[in-house]
Amino acid sequence: MPNKINIALVGNPNSGKTSLFNALTGLNQQVGNFPGVTVDKKSGNCKISETLVANIIDLPGTYSLYPKRADEWVAYNVIMGQDVNVQPDIIVLVADASNLKRNLLFCSQIIDLKTPVVIALSMMDLAKQKGTQINIAAMEEELGVPIIAIGSKRNKVITPLKIAISKVIANGLQPSKKDFFDIDFANKNAIEETKNLFDGISNYKAQHYIINNEHLLFNKNKTEQIDEIKTKSNFNATKTQADEIIQRFAHIKQIMNDTVVEKDPLKRSLVSAKIDDILLHRFWGYIILLSVLFVLFQSVFWLAQFPMDGIEWTFGKLSGWLANLLPQGIFADVFINGIVAGLSGIFIFVPQIMILFGLITMLEDTGYMARISFLSDKLMRKVGLNGKSIMPMISGYACAVPAIMSARNIENKKERLLTILITPLMSCSARLPVYTILISLVIPSKLFFGILSLQGLVMMLLYLLGTLLALLVAWVAQWFIKSTERSFFILELPIYRSPRWKNVATTMLVKAKIFVFDAGKIIMIISIGLWVLSTFGPAKKMQGVSAKYNTLIQQLPMQKDSLEKEKKAELLQSSFAGIIGKSIEPAILPLGYDWKIGIALITSFAAREVFVGTMATLYSVGDGVENYNNTLRQKMIAATRANGSKVYTLATGLSLLVFYVIAMQCMSTLVIVKRETKTWKWPIIQFLYMTSLAYLLSFITYQIFK
Question: Model-level pTM greater than 0.85?
């Protein structure tokens, strides 16, 4: 028995595949991209037995072995053994027991490839609710592969699956001897000739080699030989596929009759249908949707307030303690103002990010997220999109990069391009730290009716502003992007179910880990870099400022404290960071911003969340040792301009919030848009229209409220 194997996890969309992946791998997961395509590659290690470890690869969901979308091609290439980087030893196929007939189509295709397969039956609790009884032993006999009922929530159901995998390996990775599709007599010669070109492939795999040979990794000679076989035999791919599907469903019907007992659907009224009558109502459905979003954003403030306050207090005390402990000098300065300030800007927002992703995962698990797509289709079509666009847009609330990648599921090129262009307007999690700090500065912490937070309402309005602007931009842009393709929207509504709490918890921890280690690296690098830029400057200029104030302090010893503060402030303005900020200040002054905010706008192009780390560094450097105990919010509230007026007024705060809602401040997003559109034309257009719109609306906001 080998010490390590590769297992490909496959299945239909909404079959419970991702939940099983999370249960098997826990936090031992890695996320990347499949080489050459922008499709997520999720993998993780799982201990199958004392001597066996498996590398689990979670493939994108697909309904059959006839791919249409980019993510389906990724799954297809791995299953067919055409991905040189991912060669699975076993396929674990997740099948929804509550929707078995459709899932068995994919199962039968995988089995006919003669690859070692273990079937994991998910949603068994839902199948029982529907009155479906499955004779698993009889179905194993019919399919010729191990079948394990994995339930829905309990971790203990994973053990039988691991045992089944171990047995398949111990038996020499033997595939099923059953065949579910008889190769048509007219294609028999073509199949046999193709099999002769390759060692040990099944009839069904040979058929796929003929149909998709131009997409597979064959050398030129093999491709030409297969083309010759196709031409000689008059191979008709469309007819072959149609005949196959008809024949498979006939076979599946027989298997279902022998192994599954179902209640007459006309005699039962499903709970999901009754709930949909309310949640998909043409009026109440939208009211409920807005209410759900309202509760979502209120909860981000309600639930995160206490841990955020605790983290902020801890870092404030830590900075003060370190200031008293460490000898004054450049080491203490960089450690406290660079490293500790940067860490504070990272960890303080972890609670909100975890809560936001946890709530979104709950919506997905319950099945409500699919209903949001359905509700949105009518509105989406009015602005040139369709219901499929809503999923990338909602994903954009988390991060625009994977959201733009997921737009590959949209077949219509025009709708896909429009979705890519507007998705960055959705308020991603990177904006959340900026929203939180600015809202806490300029919006009072008031409650209406004892429960409704004014700050939570403002947060929700910011998300709605981004969404409405996205729809408006799509409506305008549709007149400039021409296409003759027809658009269709087909969506399967999953049955409602309770959230998988372990899945929710795993997602929260994984997202927090990604934020801390991925975004955190950028924040730390920029924080330390800013400390350098804020501490050093042109030698003559910095020496001149120091000499000037040293002389004044000698002449006016009674005013030493105030002169020291003025000295630090002028040294900061004379530093390299100050020079950069002052150079762009005239352009941003009409928006109500000062030079420090200008520096934050520049650094935010690396990542929006860097805004907070930038502010923490700039205000720590400028405030001196005596204010180490003060929190960032206290320092920003106390910030004043040269004329003594406050920097963060209501007008400035709202203007800055509007700017961050709209502006394209994410280099990673621009790179992904270029990769998806294969040209720099659209990223440049995207950057120009978002930045221009942000400047205009921020200017209007500042003029209204100042």
Answer: no
